[in-house]
Amino acid sequence: MYVAMTTKIESIPSNQRSPSQEAPRFNPSIRKIFDVGRLYLDLIYPPSCLICSGELPNLRSIDLCSSCLDAMQGDNRHWCRKCGMPKEPHRADKRTCTQCAKQSFAFDDVIIWGQYQGVLREAVIAGKKQFHEPLTMTMGRLLADRIAEEQVVLPDVITFVPSHWRRRFGRRTVPSATLAKPVGRRLRRPVKQILRPVRATAKQAMLPAAERSRNISGAFAVRKRYRCEGKHVLVVDDVMTTGATFNEIAGVLKRAGAASVCVAATARGTGIS
User: Fold this and answer.
1) Confidence at residue 85, expressed as pLDDT on a 0 to 100 scale
2) So what's the pLDDT on residue 116?
3) Which of 76, 82, 184, 245 has the fewest CB atoms within 10 Å, measured from its CB?
4) Are 221 and 194 in contact (CB under 8 A)?
């Protein structure tokens, strides 16, 4: 059941916003110095697409060329806000699809950027390595824009799916945390590591769907220093497949008192080619 949150994104009068909701203010002189510096940097190192290395125009909002961005987006799909799967064409104007009618989830809302296939799949896999963190940040900005479009209300706090130290040691990065940073900036909400891994788990992608819930059960806990009673929480990750990890985390957060949990992923594994 979807739980409405309390604060709308677009309808907050500027004189009623809290400091955390206000846009950051920059000294115009500092901004001018920054813009000039970036112009010279672009002349020395021409901007290039993070995927194909093709040339980009100097005035750009994202470090991807149009061809790669179109390839990542693929067909524009309408995603179910209950399970994250693509909705049937006849339900494009509905919130949910027919596939999850009899299913229940601990999370209240799902926001997806694209389908886990092709160029987007390759970008997500590359983003699991520290060297490709700039690409992950770019995908985080894309996800942030989608959340701002789809989410009619703001969460109180943004968090991410944590990685066990053994996995962090191998990757030297936490993609979900990297994704969450631009989301926090876009929504003007704090990003906190609310959760901690309790134990190491097998990689979900290597397990059959039926075993994923058991593998992830009891794998997370809320950190002692954080209180989430009554809060509306947004949880970010790079990929959603069966939804078992998100479901486990949402359950942990709600048992700790969270009022609602929305989950968001860059890509959704659908099994659809």
Assistant:
1) 93
2) 93
3) 76
4) no
Query: Residue 253: is it exposed, middle or buried by C-beta count within 10 angstroms (0-12/13-18/19+)?
Result: buried
Identity at 87, one-letter amino acid code: K
| Beta strands 220-222 and 157-160, pairing class | unpaired
Instruction: Report how far residue 64's alpha carbon sits from residue 60's, in angstroms, rounded to the nearest whole number.
Output: 9
- With H, G, I as helix, E, B as strand and everything else as coil, classify residue 181: helix
* The pLDDT value given to residue 151: 75
List of E strands, 74-223? 109-115, 153-154, 157-160, 195-197, 220-222
Pairing verdict, β 260-268 and 232-240: parallel
- What distances in angstroms separate CA 214 from CA 36, 206, 209, 211, 268, one per listed residue? 54, 13, 10, 5, 21
Contact between 242 and 212 under an 8 Å Cβ cutoff? The reply is: yes
Interstrand relation of 195-197 and 220-222 (parallel, antiparallel or unpaired): antiparallel
Identify whether the C-beta of residue 254 lies closer than 8 Å to the C-beta of residue 226: no
Block means of pLDDT (10 residues each) for the chain, 273 residues, are 39 40 46 49 66 73 84 83 91 88 92 93 88 89 92 89 69 87 95 90 68 79 92 96 92 96 94 58
**Which residues, including other chains, have CB under 8 Å from residue 153's CB and lie 6 or more apart?**
4, 5, 6, 7, 8, 9, 232
Beta strands at 157-160 and 232-240: parallel, antiparallel or unpaired: parallel
On whether the pTM is more than 0.90, the answer is no
Question: What's at 272, amino acid-wise?
Answer: I
- 100, 144 Cβ separation under 8 angstroms: no
